[in-house]
Amino acid sequence: MSEGPPFEKVLIANRGEIAVRVIRACRELGIRSVAVYSDADRNALHVRYADEAYACGPPAAAKSYLDMDRILSIAKRSGAQAIHPGYGFMSENAEFARRCAEAGVVFIGPSPETIEEMGDKVLARQKMQAAGVPLVPGTTEKLTDDEAIAAAKEMGLPVMVKATAGGGGKGMRLVEAESDLAQSIARARSEARASFGDDAIYVEKFVEQPRHIEIQILGDSHGNAIHLFERECSIQRRHQKVIEEAPANRMPARLREEMGKAAVAAAKAVGYEGAGTCEFLVDARDRFYFLEMNTRVQVEHPVTELITNVDIVKTGIRIAAGQEIGFAQSEVGINGAALECRIYAEDPEQNFRPSPGEVLVYRPPGGPGVRNDSGVYSGAEVTVHYDPMISKLITWGRDRDEAISRMRRALREFVVKGIKTSIPFHRAVMDNSTFLEGRYDTSFIEREILPSGATSVAVDEEELRAGVMLAAIAALKRDQDLAARAAQGGGQRQTESRWKLAGRMRQLRGAG
Ligand code: MV4
């Protein structure tokens, strides 16, 4: 394939590791890259890697990375032919995609119509139902309060009341008792109104202890669509993914095939162009249900890249330039296994409180099977203005055990000083027997590691945090002291005992 560079110049409307990732793809494709940076990011890594960089405003994202006029004017000024939005920021903003088109700049991603349709979760459910994709049982219309209550009673509790404009866990409520329906609906609506300016809701049957398995898709403007198999993203904390892997655990060939087919049908149903993801819930009986489609490159795309040898970001850029995907479904297979640990500038011992500051020492791991996608370096500043993820540590192995051994080894090599990070947390997970057996679901962190996991679904989050956190922090401190004393006596290393507190956490919770 010697088609020449798909574009001459691309603007990356993002920051951090994903901006770096896109710049790398551009470099390999022979495309000049244009970075934008807020005042807080003057010295950021993505600025150093790009061919050109332009200031785009003050630190607050709303006034810089989210300022459409400003970003589009920089695109014009720099002569960029296309804009890559990365993830977050304007990546799923249909208005921005539309404005790019009006300005004669290619938006690297699906059409504004697709973004809009998939952003409206009820419209997405209608589309997917028509395409024969299995949905979580529930409603496919926006409902009045009375309709929602009637629908919930008919399908039987527990149910999830979800904001149509939501997604990713925002604006949803678990309702377990009929007597709570009215109040939960009211709360879901007011949350949705505050977050999205839209209080429409729908109702789904609650899927108990589901696994979160998603399928990477690629579609092009020539009508081709394929999938790149699945990722398992069940390890989440308050709807933030923490560890992802590919392929998924406990994935019978039949389920894999059916989910792949469903994802391709979904892509075709919306004429999907670019890289996207179909999110599914998989229940204990291996039934799968479409949850939502993410119309962007995802944080965890590298695990798929490592097992399929497909460069998802480069392929997305080529597709946006009108090229074909360039390979067929039959040419894509699964080779080995990959894991990703998201490393945050957070203190895992202080309820994952943000830990901004200067990265005094940054010494990332390397060696066989290790990839580190990062936006920081020694001397970089982690500010409070943006997402605190500083690095994605990804390992590959011929099988899951090898990927885990490499992750354990890489986490041990990783040195970050000046800020606290979630590295110790990841080290603990790599020794957790439930994780090692691959027998976890979305309640993993809540059950095995911490009391403050995905609790918004099951319990009132504020209440839980207020009461249990104080007790839990005290418990952590006690354990730390014990571990420190043991270490002094030539005993075990501290990090090994700190997290094995699930039993105590449960006790505390029961007592609270
Ligand atoms: C659900 C569910 C159970 N049943 N919907 C959370 C994020 C958002 N994308 C949808 N989510 C869920 N929707 C029904 N009908 C459970 C979750 C859920 C979850 C999903 C994926 C990964 C982690 C999760 C943690 C808690 C709840």
Annotation keywords:
512 residues, alpha+beta, Rossmann fold, Dna Ligase, domain 1, D-amino Acid Aminotransferase, Chain A, domain 1, eight-stranded antiparallel sheet, five-stranded parallel sheet, 19 helices, 38% helix, disordered C terminus, binds ligand MV4
Task: Detail the topology: elements first, then pairings.
Layout: E1 9-12, H1 16-29, E2 32-38, H2 45-49, E3 52-57, H3 68-78, E4 82-84, H4 94-102, E5 106-107, H5 112-119, H6 121-130, H7 145-155, E6 159-167, E7 170-175, H8 181-196, E8 201-205, E9 211-219, E10 225-237, E11 240-246, H9 253-269, E12 274-282, E13 288-294, H10 301-308, H11 312-320, E14 337-344, E15 346-347, E16 353-354, E17 357-358, E18 361-363, E19 370-374, E20 381-382, E21 389-397, H12 400-413, E22 415-417, H13 423-429, H14 433-437, H15 444-449, H16 455-458, H17 461-488, H18 494-498, H19 502-511
Parallel strand pairs: 1-2, 1-4, 2-3, 4-5
Antiparallel strand pairs: 6-7, 6-8, 9-10, 9-12, 10-11, 11-14, 12-13, 14-21, 15-16, 17-20, 18-22, 19-21
Helix pairs in contact: 4-5, 7-8, 17-19
This protein binds ligand MV4.
Ligand MV4 is lined by residues 136, 160, 168-169, 204-207, 210, 212, 236, 239, 281, 291-292, 442, 454, 457.
